[in-house]
Amino acid sequence: GMVASHMKDKGNIRHYYRCVTKSSAQYRNNIDRCSNRYIPVDILEEDVWQTVVDIAKGEAALSDYLQTETVPDRSRDIAELTRRQEDAQKKRIDIMKWYRSNLLDTKTAEAELETVAKEIATIAEQLSGLKNVQDKIKKPPVISPEIIMEATTTEEKRKLLLQYGLLVHVKRIGKNYEFWFSL
After folding, report:
1. pLDDT tens across the length of the chain (183 residues)
2. Does the global pTM surpass 0.70?
């Protein structure tokens, strides 16, 4: 990844993006150390913002710039676990009804309730994990031209990118660079 940085050059402060691994002592002898040159902040951010404006106006497609992780769709598994969770909760209610009606003794009811409670907890944990995975399958945001055009400062533009959930990735290629978004 790249991070924003700055340096003084003949009394002027120059802002740029640099690879995290480029100047970090931690990566000094690492074979994966970045050898890319710095990218001036103003040039990169102007290109990124112009692309966002083009997408908002419908002159470019976000999908052309979007790199997504391949995450399996778990909606069927979530539906099945949700059904099992509802069944277990109904069973818990039934056990309590049977106990109140004297169809179950205290010891049996407690044992049954403990078993159902463990089942509900296990299902809840599995369901939480699957929902976290499912949340990674995000639909690309619809970028509003009106909101985009209102952003004038760099800070407002960066804030909107975050609001839309867009992360910018950059790769230097010789004297040029390419960028793409991820959610």
Report:
1. 566 666 777 778 877 777 766 666 665 666 666 666 677 888 888 898 999 999 989 898 888 887 765 556 778 888 999 999 999 999 999 999 999 999 999 999 999 999 999 999 999 988 888 887 676 566 677 888 898 889 998 889 988 888 887 878 887 777 778 888 877
2. no
What are the structure tokens assigned to 62, written together? 């976000």
